[in-house]
Specification:
single chain, 459 residues, alpha+beta, Heat Shock Protein 90, Ribosomal Protein S5, domain 2, 3 domains, ten-stranded mixed β-sheet, five-stranded mixed β-sheet, 8 helices, 25% strand, elongated
Length: 459
């Protein structure tokens, strides 16, 4: 048995086995002195000195993501610093093999930057979007991920037509990178990308939705039913970035073979520029240079929480600093007989922020007065009966698997606030920021339909 003693307040956990010593650092250590003293003892102490001191430089204490194992003979009772250093190097190499890594930037601007101006009315709209339209700044991450998801969905439709595309080996995924030192946030997809003309039309014109145009074309070709995964509607979501950024760079290359790469830059003041660039992968890469008061969005933990809150159920994998974030499936979109009990349990605990199991569940879909799917759970316990205050509504509203409103009021009557779950509809009336439902007679009608269905289920 290995005994570990730290002479400082930092927390360290040890895993041991018969012939090896393993360390896993669960959090980055904060060392107040350059050296830390550790003591090891063998499983069979002798009459000699029980503990052997080992002085380690603080450079040996990274936040290790793999166990650090040292294979020692059974007669050995201590390990040298060189053995630990070699194990750390080996650990780092193993980590590199197993982690999803965001490729380092390859982009290089090669052409002259051509300046453009937003039109006068567009500049006014831009100011409204950046200052007044959205309630929460964090929504910009939801909007950019939705754009990336749409770009990947458009690429999927393009490949179904048999069209040859650039870089067909690239994965259909979204990669997000945080950088606290540079105060940047980068969101990249390997989707359909944009040509120079599409950059001008889609990013140079506010309230012109490229996704809306795509859906329109599908409808004209008789394939409107295939547009169910497209999220964008109003053409303003991208400009929410100017709530948090001083400058944005958008590197993009169209999936059409032979397309050039471009970079679109703007500070949101009314102008933007476009230049040719080399080393640009298919798709779109958005680099946000954050304002000082928006530095929190360069922190991995903050961004992780926002992704799980709003965009956990998008149709494509999201990797944040190399780790997959969206691991829970959107169960309400799956056939009832294809969902396992384990999946229901994980989903319920995710949306309810609970460690308990649900007593009952109801999976329900309607086509009129609008297309809508609901997945409701009845908890096994609730906090009100323990005197912990009045609960908030437990149902979240989604549109095309993207969160619109958490704990939505009005979708169910208040006396059903104990019910947890989701309601998703591509047709539900939303305000321009997609943060709230519009107060229309249709919402009251949905309330009535869902309430009646729940009462029928309870009876």
């Amino acid at each position: 048995m290995v005994v570990l003693m730290m002479m400082m307040s930092s927390r360290l956990f040890v895993r041991s086995c018969s012939r090896s010593v393993g360390f896993r650092f669960l959090s980055r250590l904060s060392l107040s002195t350059p050296r830390t003293q550790l003591f090891f003892s063998s499983s069979t102490p002798s009459s000699s000195s029980l503990f052997t001191p080992l002085l380690l430089s603080s450079r040996f204490w990274p936040a290790l993501k793999q166990p650090l194992s040292l294979d020692l003979p059974s007669s050995r009772r201590f390990c040298s610093t060189s053995e630990i250093e070699d194990a750390i190097v080996k650990n780092d190499k193993n980590t590199e093999k197993t982690e999803q890594k965001v490729e380092p930037a390859q982009e290089r601007v090669t052409g002259p930057a051509v300046s453009h101006e937003f039109q006068a009315h567009t500049r006014k709209i831009l100011d409204i979007v950046a200052r007044s339209l959205y309630t929460d700044k964090e929504v910009f991450i939801r909007e950019l991920i939705s754009n990336s998801s749409d770009a990947l969905e458009k690429l999927r439709h393009l490949t179904l037509t048999g069209t040859s595309i650039e870089d067909p080996h690239l994965p259909s995924e979204i990669r997000i990178t945080t950088d606290k030192i540079k105060n940047t946030l980068t969101i990249q997809d390997y989707g359909i990308g944009m040509t120079e003309e599409e950059l001008i039309n889609n990013l140079g014109t506010i309230a012109r939705s490229g996704s809306e145009e795509f859906i329109k074309k599908l409808g004209e070709s008789g394939n409107a039913a295939q547009a169910g995964e497209i999220i964008g509607q109003f053409g303003v979501g991208f400009y929410s970035i100017f709530m948090v950024t001083n400058n944005v760079e958008v590197f993009t290359r169209s999936a059409i073979q032979g397309s050039k790469g471009y970079v679109w830059t703007s500070d949101g003041s009314g102008k933007y520029s476009i230049a040719e660039a080399e080393g640009v992968a298919r798709g779109t890469k958005v680099i946000l240079h954050l304002k000082e008061d928006a530095a929190e969005f360069s922190h991995q933990q903050k961004v992780d929480a926002i992704i799980k809150k709003y965009s956990n159920f998008v149709s494509f994998d999201i990797f944040l600093d190399g780790d997959k974030v969206n691991t829970i499936k959107a169960l309400w979109t799956l056939p009832k007989d294809k969902i396992t009990e384990e999946e229901h349990k994980a989903f319920y605990q995710f949306i309810s922020h609970s460690h308990n199991d649900a007593l009952y569940r109801l999976h329900y879909s309607i086509d009129s007065p609008l297309a809508l799917t609901a997945l409701f759970y009845v908890p096994s316990a609730h906090v009100e009966k323990y005197g912990m205050g009045r609960m908030e509504p437990g149902v979240n509203i989604y549109s095309r698997k993207v969160l619109i409103q958490a704990r939505a009021k009005g979708i169910l009557p208040d006396w059903l606030r104990f019910v947890k779950g989701v309601v998703d509809s591509p047709d539900i009336p939303l305000n321009l920021s997609r943060e709230h439902l519009q107060d229309t007679p249709l919402i009251k009608r949905i309330n009535t339909i869902l309430t009646k269905r729940l009462l029928k289920f309870f009876c």
